[in-house]
């Protein structure tokens, strides 16, 4: 294995790539109520549009990366992200904003998708779970800084500056990619045409073990996106939290993710991934049921909401790493790019369900957000419990 794969620079770049999805949305969360007024439309559609683009584009980039390698799609994707961010900054109505958010997503999706694939290329199963936990810990800085930075930006200037900042970040990221090694060796690349490669998705969809863990993660993220999309209106509009302080409440949840990611690095060495995943999803489900109860009965106010959301969101530090590792371990290395693409497509595309539900059923209270989270955490634990243990560990490095 290339020694660069053990270096801090390699991990730093992959962590930043993993953060592109959350960074692209979280940074403008505090500005959403202002943007809704200025752009005259459902601002949730900008999240929906981004997630649609993010989900669909991965299905294209995955097979391409299995054929051409990981680095070239990353370079192309970063250029598209920069162009899309410029378009968002210059948008004057909701239609333009949604279009450029979709375009932005077509580039941004290459980051987390190929970061996961590069980890799968490089490490065995248990080590991969450790590495993903490390990446989740480092990338969690973005959701902390994002809303805080967005809140301060709109305090001194307009929301347009948020997207100009993303242009700068995209440019810096583009140049950092030159330091990233190629992890998919030529002999491990798919040698058939791209048209045939796309047929691999049917194989993945029929792989029950792969889909079990993928759907577990997908349903959890429907609930997570219900909070991420709905929380600005719950905290700012319903509970009256100042937009510049909203970021601190959001950051609290990310601190929980970071803490659990660190804990998970040790836990994966002592306990089966299956057991860790079951416990984490169970805790998340209990948290959302408690959230729905306190909201419905109007108990505890914003403190009760913050505490239960913190407990739910913290479990992402375990669920994301263990479920992703288990799913990728269920497929051969030649399908790692396509498998990572399908995981990412369903994981981030799940937010489309959340944002549409919130737009259709919003009642001005936290209740809609709460029942969406309950339904899909229950779905997550249901699909996880349907079958037995994880497959055997891979025995050697790729």
Automatic annotation (TrEMBL):
Domain Major facilitator superfamily (MFS) profile: 1-394
Bilayer-crossing regions: 45-62, 74-92, 98-119, 131-149, 161-180, 213-239, 245-263, 275-295, 301-328, 340-361, 367-385
Keyword terms, alphabetized: Cell inner membrane, Cell membrane, Membrane, Transmembrane, Transmembrane helix, Transport
PROSITE patterns according to UniProt: MFS
UniProt GO molecular function: xenobiotic transmembrane transporter activity
A GO-annotated cellular component: plasma membrane
Annotated Gene3D superfamilies: Multidrug resistance protein D (1.20.1720.10)
Pfam families reported in the protein's UniProt record: MFS_1
GO terms for biological process, alphabetical: xenobiotic detoxification by transmembrane export across the plasma membrane
UniProt family annotation: Belongs to the major facilitator superfamily. Bcr/CmlA family.
PANTHER family xref list: MAJOR FACILITATOR SUPERFAMILY, POLYAMINE TRANSPORTER 2-RELATED
Protein name: Bcr/CflA family efflux transporter
Organism this protein belongs to: Vibrio mangrovi
Gene (name only): bcr_2
């Amino acid at each position: 294995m290339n020694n660069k794969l053990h270096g801090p620079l390699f991990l730093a770049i992959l962590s930043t790539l993993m953060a592109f999805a959350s960074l692209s949305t979280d940074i403008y969360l505090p500005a959403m109520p202002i943007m809704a007024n200025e752009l005259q439309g459902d601002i949730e559609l900008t999240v929906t549009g981004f997630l649609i683009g993010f989900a669909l584009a991965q299905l294209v980039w995955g097979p391409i990366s299995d054929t051409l390698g990981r680095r070239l799609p990353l370079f192309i994707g970063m250029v598209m992200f920069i162009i899309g961010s410029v378009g968002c900054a210059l948008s004057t109505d909701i239609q333009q904003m949604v279009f450029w958010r979709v375009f932005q997503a077509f580039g941004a999706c290459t980051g987390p998708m190929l970061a996961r694939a590069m980890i799968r290329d490089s490490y065995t199963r248990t080590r991969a779970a450790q590495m993903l936990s490390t990446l989740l810990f480092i990338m969690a800085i973005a959701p902390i800084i994002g809303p805080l930075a967005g809140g301060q930006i709109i305090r001194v200037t307009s929301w347009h500056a948020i997207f100009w900042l993303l242009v700068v970040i995209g440019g810096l990221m583009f140049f950092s990619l030159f330091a990233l090694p190629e992890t998919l060796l030529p002999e491990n690349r798919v040698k058939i045409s791209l048209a045939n490669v796309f047929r691999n998705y049917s194989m993945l969809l029929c792989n029950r073990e792969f889909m079990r863990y993928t759907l577990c993660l997908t349903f959890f993220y429907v609930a997570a996106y219900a909070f991420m999309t709905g929380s600005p209106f719950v905290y700012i509009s319903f509970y009256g939290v100042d937009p510049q302080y909203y970021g601190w409440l959001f950051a609290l949840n990310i601190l929980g993710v970071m803490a659990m990611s660190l804990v998970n690095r040790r836990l994966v060495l002592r306990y089966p991934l299956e057991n860790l995943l079951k416990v984490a999803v169970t805790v998340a489900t209990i948290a959302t049921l408690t959230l729905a109860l306190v909201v419905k009965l109007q108990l505890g106010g914003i403190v009760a909401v913050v505490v239960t959301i913190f407990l739910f969101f913290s479990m992402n530090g375990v669920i994301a790493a263990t479920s992703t590792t288990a799913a990728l371990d269920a497929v051969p290395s030649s399908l790692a790019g396509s498998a990572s693409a399908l995981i990412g497509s369903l994981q981030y595309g799940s937010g489309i369900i959340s944002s549409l539900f919130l737009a259709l059923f919003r009642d001005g209270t936290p209740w809609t957000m709460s029942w969406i989270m309950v339904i899909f955490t229950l779905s997550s634990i249901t699909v996880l419990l349907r079958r037995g243990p994880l497959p055997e560990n891979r025995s050697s490095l790729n």
